[in-house]
Amino acid sequence: MAWERSEDTSLNCSTCRAVLVQLEGCSHPVVMKGLCAECGQDLTQLQSKNGRPQVPLSTATVSMVHSVPELMVSSEQAEQLGREDQQRLHRNRKLVLMVDLDQTLIHTTEQLCQQMSNKVVKLHRKASVS
């Protein structure tokens, strides 16, 4: 491969053809209220073109926040955020409890019970008085 510099400060390769830059369209991995957070494209405007519905190619299919259903991210982005959150919780030695609406415990951390047996905390709810 012989690279030589021409007068216009560009590089020329005399023995090969190399791709220096490949442009790709935005996959819209994060969408908030119909707007792509990466490129800013209004995805709601693409819904109808020439009377036919045109669905934009967006990888954002996972709703991240229950109270904000308009915020959607791609499954890859959701997995990455989940891993980062899990690493942060382990690093800060925090315990997350996921509780159902009727206060049923659904999930806790991955730590073994034997390791935490001396740190068990019991919580008793007082019965509500009507």
Automatic annotation (TrEMBL):
Top-level taxon of origin: Eukaryota
Gene Ontology cellular component list: nucleus
Keywords: Hydrolase, Nucleus
GO MF annotation, one: RNA polymerase II CTD heptapeptide repeat phosphatase activity
Gene3D superfamilies xref list: HAD superfamily/HAD-like (3.40.50.1000)
EC number: 3.1.3.16
Catalytic activity: O-phospho-L-threonyl-[protein] + H2O = L-threonyl-[protein] + phosphate; O-phospho-L-seryl-[protein] + H2O = L-seryl-[protein] + phosphate
Cited InterPro entries: Fcp1, HAD_sf
Signal sequence range: none
Name of the featured protein: protein-serine/threonine phosphatase
Coiled coil: none
Organism: Balaenoptera physalus (Fin whale)
UniProt keyword Electron transport, yes or no: no
The protein's enzyme class: hydrolase
Record localization: Nucleus
Main localization, broad class: nucleus
